TrEMBL record:
Pfam families: LRR_8 (PF13855)
Positions with biased composition (Basic residues): 437-446
Protein name (database record): Reticulon 4 receptor
Membrane topology field: Lipid-anchor
Similarity section: Belongs to the Nogo receptor family.
MF-aspect GO terms: ganglioside GM1 binding; ganglioside GT1b binding
Biased composition (Basic and acidic residues): 376-392
UniProt keywords, alphabetically: Cell membrane, Cell projection, Glycoprotein, Leucine-rich repeat, Lipoprotein, Membrane, Receptor, Repeat, Signal
Organism of derivation: Lepisosteus oculatus
Top-level division of the source organism's lineage: Eukaryota
Composition skew (Polar residues), residue ranges: 322-335, 364-375
Length: 479
């Protein structure tokens, strides 16, 4: 009797012990399974095209990286309620079914990075993963993140979104991520940092936004980043960043802003002032313009270097105008000077205003100075007109307005004075055009052809010669 009781006690103890030991059942044939330190199924680099169906339900870690997986089904991990780590990176995944991670309430780390064909994520793909602290979505070909994709991920601390094709991020994308500490957004195509793009990231410590295409940052874009210590914004397309924008970063220690096209004029003054207060470490900010400051560090400039603002629009207009004039067309909305007519034949109205009023010129009667292809001829033409007491650099750019075939808005509304507003003695010396002129204007008092005008002037000269010839001969005879 005592022997029977003792054997029964041993069997009971054995059963209890076996129940207390973690069991690994039905390990997939191509995988390696082990129970210590946590129940793990390792199936990496096995050439798998689909997720094995014999994964033990007690699994806590599943490694499926570096295979040929294409789809993550909604039933792939539905029974693995103890799962804490899931690695699916470096596969060919192009689709994740809705509910694929549903029920994995204990999941802490999910890596689906380096799946370049994924491109689209369902808005509810990560719903319910309240304990997730690390999420890898790098190199997935993502061009957009759906609204609410990170909703409910209150425990998330590390988010990897680098090296995708993201063009923009919706406002409040990270609103629920108050515990996020690292956000990696570098290597995308983001152009604008809006006011609420980073809202909710009150615990963020490191933000990497370098190697994007950022051209503008809203002045309140960083208003929730009071705990940020490391900020990379280098290799973007920034030209201006205000000190008021940076004032929110009260905990910042490491800053990199190099590799941008900084305009070092009065618009950089507030950022320059902010750097005087900044106690952390920073890269250089190489000036892109003006030419006198190219390559110099904005932080090391003097206050006097930042006086005045460059007129970029004026520089652009000058460049466009230069292109037009080289093509042989003057961008003007005024009728060009009527060349080739003697002053005696100009009507009184034409004498008072040589340039007609503002209508668009008729291209067929465009008689203003044409630029030839012969450099010597151009030099000769340019050297002939001599305006007394006039700066040639100013008058040389007068009357340059937009032609009717030019893009609208190429030039500003402020135009130089037309030739008709110059003093009369300035316009009298204008060289006749080398282009063929229009039909010559008849005389204003007695209409007659130009040839008759010239003939009458010649007749007057001969009459004067005949009148003075006897007087000259008589004077010579007396001498």
């Amino acid at each position: 009797m005592k022997t029977t009781v003792a054997e029964g006690s041993r069997l009971l103890f054995l059963v209890l012990w076996l129940n207390s030991v973690p069991q690994v059942e039905c390990c997939p044939g191509v995988c390696v399974c082990y129970s210590e330190p946590r129940t793990t199924v390792a199936c990496q680099q096995q050439g798998l095209s689909s997720i094995p169906t014999e994964i033990p339900i007690r699994s806590q870690r599943i490694f499926l990286q570096n295979n040929k997986l294409t789809v993550v089904k909604s039933t792939s991990f539905s029974s693995c309620h103890n799962l804490t780590v899931l690695w699916l990176y470096s596969n060919n995944i192009s689709h994740i079914e809705a509910g694929a991670f549903y029920g994995l309430e204990r999941l802490e780390e999910l890596d689906i990075g380096d799946n370049s064909n994924l491109r689209i994520i369902s808005p509810t793909a990560f719903r319910g993963l309240s304990r997730l602290h690390t999420l890898h979505l790098h190199r997935c070909g993502l061009s957009e993140l759906p609204i609410g994709v990170f909703r409910g991920l209150f425990s998330l601390q590390y988010l990897y979104l680098q090296d995708n094709n993201l063009l923009t991020l919706h406002d409040d994308t990270f609103l629920d991520l108050a515990n996020l500490t690292y956000l990696f957004l570098h290597g995308n195509k983001i152009k604008t940092v809006s006011e609420n793009m980073l809202r909710g990231l009150i615990g963020l410590d490191r933000l990497l936004l370098h190697q994007n295409r950022v051209t503008s940052v809203h002045r309140r874009a960083f208003h929730d980043l009071g705990k940020l210590t490391t900020f990379y914004l280098f290799n973007n397309n920034l030209t201006v960043l205000t000190g008021e924008t940076m004032d929110y970063l009260v905990s910042l220690q490491y800053l990199r802003l190099n590799g941008n096209q900084w305009i070092c004029d009065c618009r950089a003054r507030s950022l320059w002032d902010w750097f005087k207060r900044f106690k952390g470490s920073s890269s250089e900010l190489e000036c892109h313009v003006p030419a006198s400051l190219v390559g110099k560090d904005l932080k090391r400039l003097k206050a006097s270097d930042l006086e005045g603002c460059l007129d970029n629009s004026h520089q652009i207009r000058t460049s466009i105008f230069s292109t037009k004039t080289r093509s042989g067309k003057l961008p003007s909305t005024e009728t060009p000077l009527r060349e080739g007519s003697p002053r005696c034949c100009l009507p009184e109205s034409d004498k008072s205003s040589i340039i007609s009023s503002k209508g668009l010129p008729d291209p067929s009667s465009y008689n203003s100075r044409q630029i030839t292809n012969n450099p010597l001829k151009e030099k000769e033409n340019i050297s002939k007109p001599k305006f007394p007491d006039v700066d040639p650099t100013k008058n040389g750019t007068r009357n340059k307005q937009r032609l009717n075939d030019d893009p609208v808005g190429t030039f500003s509304n402020t135009q130089d004075d037309p030739l008709g507003k110059l003093k009369p003695d300035y316009t009298d010396n204008l060289e006749p055009s080398t282009a063929p002129s229009r039909k010559k204007k008849k005389c204003s008092k007695k209409p007659k052809p130009d040839a008759q005008c010239l003939k009458s002037k010649g007749s007057t000269s001969r009459a004067l010669n005949l009148l003075f010839l006897p007087i000259i001969w008589f004077s010579l005879t007396i001498c």
